[in-house]
Specification:
It comes from Roseivivax halotolerans. This protein has a domain at 12-64. Helix 1 crosses helix 3 (47-66) and helix 2 (31-40) packs across helix 3 (47-66). The protein is built from three helices and no strands. It is mainly alpha-helical and 79 residues long.
Length: 79
């Protein structure tokens, strides 16, 4: 999905980084909520780490997913 070079020199693998970033961007969660969800899966991460991941990978994830969204029509109809 995202270039592998973006994930170079990170402690966690790509999937562990992308999962909380997606959760935070998709659902109305606080960083601590995301930390708790990861803790349930046995992954210990600080909320400041998730904040940095969202700042770094969020814009790239957004641009890559926007092109796959269906465009809304400008036409509208009254039933």
């Amino acid at each position: 999905m995202l270039r592998r070079s973006l994930f170079k020199h990170h402690r966690f693998p790509r999937d562990v980084i992308l999962c909380p970033v997606r959760w935070y961007l998709r659902y109305p969660l606080f960083y601590q909520d995301v930390v708790d969800l990861l803790a349930e899966r046995g992954i210990t991460v600080d909320r400041s780490t998730i904040y940095r991941w969202v700042q770094k990978f969020g814009p790239e994830l957004k641009t890559r997913t926007e092109r796959h969204l269906r465009r809304a029509s400008l036409d509208w109809h009254v039933d």
